[in-house]
Amino acid sequence: MAVVAGTLAYALLGLACLATGVKTRRGTGEYAITRKVKVSYEELPPRERVRTSNALLALGAALLVCATYSLVPDPVIAVFFLTAVTLFAVYAVVQRDLRRAAQDIARTRAD
Per the UniProt record, which residue ranges are transmembrane (predicted)? Predict the structure, then answer.
């Protein structure tokens, strides 16, 4: 039962990353800097949006691969899991740049 729950968790997280990546790339929705301060994805620099979207899409794909192979207990899953962890670290770095760009836009609005 725990294996099925873990597989489902990987799959749902992977799908959420893919959906958010597509949403970021299209520029729909708002990026929340704080609860009150939000910036439209359309206002963010395209370069930062695309980089964040690529990182999310890669992470989502890696998590879906982890979900597929987690049903089979094998050392191969460790490779996919470490790949997903590495892609998460890349996403965290790219997300920091997106946040910095959003904060610059918010400061410009406030002035």
Answer: 54-71, 77-94
